């Protein structure tokens, strides 16, 4: 008992400076969190507000001004929004399959120590992270292979991201070589090793790849703007850009008067932002438990 009492009394207590740092750090991070989250809260409340009250209000918004779903009704009544959702889901789903397949194939090959000229190949791959031919040669290449004005123009050219390839390659290198050797003794070829051993053991980094590639596809609008001329092929983010920057909100208000259009446009923009953002936000909680682990596995070599 005496030893336990002495151990408790001799326990190292945080100094005043350490406690001050911890409190200061907690306060700073709390303020940073509020500053980061508030724009999302503002947009959500504004989208649910009454248009006339929102137009007359200025300042910080802590709750919806009135309550109205008219903006959301107008958003989903617009056929371009629904079409944009369909195009975006197609790009995300097909793009993810292509991304994971090609990136894992490339990462597996580059992670094998038996691959000849592996360092030289990696040097050329890393070179593409810092230098490119430019937008005009890129456009001419995509047009030359017949992908212009198709959804494949925003999927195939971005099938492999160099950073993601390096991340996955590093994760594959962390898997013990003994697993591959034992599989080869049992007669397994490289495809069996990759799809039945390497990938099942690399689910954290696969989850990170799904998040990285998925967010990239969901938020993509620039290349769609360049390569797509048919408006029925526009992804959701490009339609959102039109609404926010080109005053397309007026086309979503039906036969409303000019005054009603001006008021409803204020809430329509916020409602469209929420509609375009919420789906990708809902995916993250399911991948969160893999995210940190997968990023660290792919970032640390040794």
Please tell me about this protein's structure:
Belongs to the binding-protein-dependent transport system permease family. It is a multi-pass membrane protein. The chain is mainly alpha-helical and 302 residues long. 71% of the residues lie in helices and 0% in strands. The chain has helices at 2-9, 16-47, 51-56, 70-77, 79-111, 118-130, 135-144, 162-173, 177-185, 190-198, 203-219, 222-227, 236-245, 258-299. Helix 5 crosses helix 8, helix 5 (79-111) packs across helix 13 and helix 13 (236-245) packs across helix 14 (258-299).
Could you say how many structural domains there are in total? Answer: 1
How many extended strands?
0
In CATH, the homologous superfamily goes by the name: MetI-like
SS-based structural class?
A: mainly alpha
The CATH class label is Mainly Alpha
What is the CA–CA distance across the termini? 46 Å
Q: Could you give the order of the helices and strands?
A: HHHHHHHHHHHHHH
Helix content: over 70%
Q: Per CATH, what is the topology? A: MetI-like fold
- The backbone outline, from C-alpha atoms, is globular
Task: Enumerate how many helices there are, as a single number.
Answer: 14
Uncertain regions spanning at least 5 consecutive residues: 255-259, 298-302
Question: What's the assembly state of these chains?
Answer: single chain
Strand content: under 5%
Radius of gyration: 26 Å
> Could you say what the CATH architecture is?
Orthogonal Bundle
Average of pLDDT: 81
Largest sheet: none
Main location: membrane
Subcellular location: Cell membrane
Membrane topology: Multi-pass membrane protein
Pfam families: BPD_transp_1 (PF00528)
């Amino acid at each position: 008992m005496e030893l336990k009492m002495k151990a408790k009394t001799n326990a190292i207590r945080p100094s005043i400076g350490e406690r001050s740092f911890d409190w200061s750090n907690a306060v700073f991070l709390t303020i940073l969190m509020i500053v980061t989250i508030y724009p999302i809260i503002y947009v959500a409340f504004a989208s649910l507000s009454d248009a006339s009250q929102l137009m007359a209000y200025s300042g910080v918004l802590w709750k919806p001004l009135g309550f109205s779903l008219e903006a959301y009704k107008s958003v989903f009544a617009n056929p371009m929004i629904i079409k944009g959702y369909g195009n975006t889901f197609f790009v995300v789903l097909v793009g993810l399959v292509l991304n994971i397949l090609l990136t894992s194939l490339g990462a597996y090959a580059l992670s094998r120590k038996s691959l000849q000229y592996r360092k030289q190949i990696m040097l050329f791959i890393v070179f593409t992270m810092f230098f490119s031919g430019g937008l005009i040669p890129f456009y001419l290449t995509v047009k030359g292979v017949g992908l212009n004005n198709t959804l494949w123009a925003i999927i195939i050219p971005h099938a492999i991201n160099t950073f993601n390839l390096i991340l996955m390659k590093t994760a594959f290198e962390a898997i013990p070589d003994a697993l591959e050797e034992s599989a080869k003794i049992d007669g397994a070829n490289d495809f069996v090793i990759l799809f039945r051993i390497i990938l099942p053991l690399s689910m954290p980094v696969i989850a990170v790849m799904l998040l990285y590639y998925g967010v990239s596809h969901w938020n993509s609008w620039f290349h769609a703007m360049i390569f797509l001329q048919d408006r029925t092929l526009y992804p959701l983010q490009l339609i959102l850009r039109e609404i926010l920057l080109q005053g397309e909100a007026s086309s979503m208000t039906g036969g409303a008067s000019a005054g009603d259009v001006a008021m409803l446009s204020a809430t329509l923009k916020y409602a469209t932002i929420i509609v375009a953002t919420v789906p990708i936000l809902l995916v993250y909680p399911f991948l969160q438990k893999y995210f940190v682990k997968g990023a660290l596995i792919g970032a640390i070599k040794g």
